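G.,

No rush on this.
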Amino acid sequence: MDFSLTAEQTALVESVTKLAEREFGERAFTRTEFAWDSLGVLARNDLTGLTLPVELGGQGASLLDAVLVMMAITKVCPHSADALQASNFGAIRQVANFGSDFVKSEVLPRFLAGEALVTAGMSEPEAGSALTDLRTSARFEGDYVVLNGQKCWNSHGPDATHSVVWCRFGPSSRDIGAVLVPFDSPGFSRGKREYHMSGESHCQLFFDECKVPKDYVLADSDALKKMLSVFGVERMGNASRALALAQKAYDMAVEHASVRTQFGKNLCEFQGLQWKFAEMRVELDAAEMLLLRAVAKADAGTPDSTEAAIAKLHANRTAFAVANDAMQVFGASGYSQEFPLEYIVRRTRGWMIAGGSVEILKNTIAQSIFGRRFDQRAGAVTR
């Protein structure tokens, strides 16, 4: 098995890195809101919809190409990488895979052009990991669908123009569907802008008799079965960003340990730190191999949700551990907000929750190990 990049892939990484340094480098690690300008740059350079079919306005590239681009941009500017995630790995894939002809021809092109931004509306105050507990309802009314409920913890909610809203068309879990809701729809409103520990913002989304043309319905039943198939790719985007930021922290720490002098010698000459760096390198390499395995399966046409879960789990845990160790190597300067390391620590911690928490990922892996489903609900009996 050859893990080396092709000449074309190497050239892709080099060109994207140069683009990111030129266009995003100056404001890297200083942003607080969604990078609309970066999204425009990505669109103009054909870096949106990388893996989507050409007939849908995408680039028809491989998932590996998209992962390589994601890692290259993340190392330079993680906020610009958020724009790449939103236009390649996130809810946009649900729109592209399950949208009506109207949505694919009239709405999707706006996302790909960097003119609009779609977020996923899944979590609710009483339904996070337990997605089947969601309460947001939807009903058909003539040529429209009417939604009632609320969503929380959505990425880029204060800045987005649309959301793929997961909702109930009936009482059963099989009645769960999804609707693409434009934020100028009557009956829609947003709560105040709030902030995560990493500095990224979110807000609540409210639907009060929110009326949307039925052409915006992505699924009115079996949405879990239909759409969860695209979540593996989203998780690989998450894993790619986590791994890339960890690599950034590691590289910074290596450079620092090579030149920083204490007690008359460089930090890298202390055996305790040598072992720390060796452990970081092993975990980073292992995370990369697991990610590449999952990506290779997906590119071969046999995506494996368990391998995607394994890749995200290890990348998330490794990223936080490596970033934290790198900050320790820097000492007080690593803890200062004047340098990127403390942000990297905060950001990598969030990815252990977003896009499938590490606990949910472990459940997925365990189900694969035992070949059976385990119901986590109180009092449930599984067979």
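When you get to it, here's the other one too:
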Amino acid sequence: MVARTGLYTLLAANVGVVTFFFVQAGFGASNALIVLGRLAGLYGALLMAFQLLLVARLPWFDRRIGMDRLTSWHRWVGFSLLWMLVTHAVFIVFGYAQASSMGPVDQLVDLAETIEGVLRAIVALALIIVVGVVSARFARRRLAYETWHFIHLYTYLAVVLAFTHQVAVGTTFTASSTAKTYWYILWGVALTSVFVGRLALPLWRNLRHRLRVTAVVPESDHVVSIYITGRDLDRLPARAGQFFLWRFLTKGRWWQANPFSLSAAPDGTQLRLTAKIAGDGTAALRHLKVGTRVFAEGPYGAFTTLHRTQPDTLLVAGGVGITPVRALLEELHGHVVLIYRVATDQDAVLYDELARLAHAKGAQLHLVTGPAAPDKLAPQELSRLVPDVADRDVYVCGPPGMTTAVLRTLRELGVPKPQIHAERFSLAG
């Protein structure tokens, strides 16, 4: 809660600062469209810097806010940024066209030819539009994760082009040394955060821990567990419930990064991930050789015991979303109830292992099978399985549809929001 409030406050404060510097610099044009376009451009630049902070994957934010929420914010900020920059471009072009009596297309060409930095801004906007289109749900469902990720990398080029455009023509850069210092600090913090979180920290951790595959164990026809060891794993800040982006450094896979949760609590000597075979990329995991080098980014996620508020816990997992929940079960203290929702008994990944672990910890394990409808975790059914659900912390991890339905049930049963912790397994699994 503190981290979320801090981010909201930070963004609101910077909106105020940007508005103040804009007014202080003077409108610089009698045309209202140009004035509004310039203000939209400044807000767009601020959103772009804030977006960099969201994608930096800084451990402090990630552990307290969670990748799910950061990803959701990233999506909303991204589309807000896109529309803010489109508004900036349209208002500026039509404003100048109105003042010069030129057509909008001719005016755009004239601005690109006569004003330094405008052409770079056009290219930046085009790149951001492409990224926005491929991030829309209809396109995202049709793209492989690696393709979508590769296209997203062009955002960094757009950021550089947009920044140089702002330096060249931004009124707050030319009218005030204080405002100029502010913008340089803002962009410097944002870009440094990305460098540290996305490059420096992962490189340092992998050089330190030197991860390698030690075993590949088929759990079923469609599920495989991979055991990984390395140096000084007791100093790797990983917790049960978190996930990594894994790269297995073989000839055909070194460039692919896939998110998989830890399926066992880290013990300082080895890590384990368990993956469902869902395509060519995950199918290749079965054929990894012992000794294969591993490059891991993480750990990520706030789906941990760090946020517990009650002594007892309810764990709800769906499908292969059981993997972080199984790790949590190993770490949790107090009375635990685990509900595992699958279509058939054969879909219950790691069930024998879960049963043994639940017995050893005195936990209750409920395997709920059957089709999605009727909802077997509706309020009446869930309260029958766990009568004291409102007095427990509840961890939910599974497919987005199941997770949404369970969260709705928990709200209807009056479970306080601070006691609910969710991970939609579209990213972490």
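The first helix runs from residue 2 to 25. Residues 209 and 231 are 5 Å apart (CA to CA).

Enjoy the weekend,
O.
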